[in-house]
Specification:
Elements (H helix, E strand, L loop, with lengths): L7 H10 L18 H14 L7 H4 L14
Length: 74
């Protein structure tokens, strides 16, 4: 279970290290913090099922966009 946004000390420290930036919970955008991980995996599954890439080569070091994961029918 996640929920880092529910950790007041973590949020305060992030804010302290990011002056001039607003550190907000996803709750402010209508997404409860405890649902972030489920939404992320649902998005990854959707990208895979549509044959779309879901990586960022500049971050992952991949040579280009890649479809992550696979779907195996039963």
């Amino acid at each position: 279970m996640g929920g880092g946004a529910l950790n007041g000390e973590l949020m305060r420290r992030l804010q302290a290290h990011l002056p001039g930036t607003s550190v907000l919970s996803t709750e402010t955008a209508g997404l409860p913090p405890l649902q972030v991980e489920a939404v992320a995996f649902a998005w990854l599954a959707r990208q895979t099922s549509l044959g779309r890439s879901s990586n960022l080569p500049a971050v992952t070091g991949a040579r280009g966009p890649r479809v992550l994961g696979a779907i195996y029918p039963a």
